[in-house]
Write a structure and sequence with these properties.
The chain has one domain. The chain is mostly helical and 168 residues long. Helices cover 90% and strands 0% of the residues. The chain is built from six helices and no strands. Keywords: Membrane, Transmembrane, Transmembrane helix.
């Protein structure tokens, strides 16, 4: 009887050790999964913001460097490709298309001041549309910014910058 009791005690301690090891390994897995989840969320946000900045610089750089409509279409295609990969909201398509158009338009005018003011204006419309959450204000600032930049003089470009900042 002592042998059977000893065997049952050994089995009990063996099961108890295995259960404690399973609990410990489960805690380790939960810790690893939690850290992995936070790392993946941070990585997704990093890729999101990196794609926004990359598309802004691609649109402005490509439409500045080559003074033709080919660069405009190429920059739009690259931007749409980057945004398609990262699943970004459609508001960014509109604002970055406007920035590319304004850059092409300013190169055709060939005045350095209007060129700089158009680039700043388009950058502000992109910045405001990305970092603000009210859609009415986003579309209003982009519309005012693009209308005053395309159809008015250099003074109107600086006015559009002023309006796009103080509309909010």
């Amino acid at each position: 009887m002592d042998g059977q009791a000893l065997e049952s005690v050994d089995e009990f301690t063996y099961l108890e050790c295995n259960m404690s090891q399973n609990v410990d390994s489960r805690k380790d897995v939960e810790k690893r999964n939690g850290k992995g989840l936070f790392i993946s969320i941070d990585l997704i946000l990093l890729v999101h913001y990196l794609s926004i900045y990359l598309s802004i610089y691609l649109s402005i750089y490509l439409s500045i460097s080559v003074c033709s409509y080919l660069s405009f279409y190429l920059s739009l295609d690259l931007i749409l490709f980057v945004h398609y990969l990262c699943k970004i909201l459609p508001v960014h398509y509109l604002s970055i298309s406007i920035s590319s158009y304004l850059s092409i338009r300013s190169v055709n005018i060939c005045h350095i001041f209007s060129y700089v003011s158009n680039c700043v204006c388009s950058y502000l419309s992109i910045y405001l549309s990305i970092y603000l959450s009210h859609s009415i204000h986003i579309y209003l600032s982009i519309y005012v910014c693009s209308y005053l930049s395309i159809y008015r003089s250099n003074f109107a470009c600086s006015l559009s910058i002023y309006l796009s900042i103080y509309l909010f």
